[in-house]
């Protein structure tokens, strides 16, 4: 059975398939459109590559923002791993 083609979401969404995949995963319409458009424009930076370049303080702030428990006792490597798996 062939996969269903992505619906055309007009000019506001540049990558319809990615948009629909993100929406199915629970992303809001705004977040899905933002990610799909950034990927289509080639400006999407993957979080996994930029995390290694951040300081421990920056990683701690990110962990706090997304609500990771036990962050105050984590090493830089542990913070990176926790953020990636969140």
TrEMBL record:
Entry-linked SUPFAM superfamilies: Rho N-terminal domain-like
Pfam families membership: DUF7218, Rho_N
Limits of the Rho termination factor-like N-terminal domain: 57-83
Alphabetical GO biological process terms: DNA-templated transcription termination
UniProt-recorded name of the protein: Rho termination factor
Species whose genome carries this gene: Sphingomonas spermidinifaciens
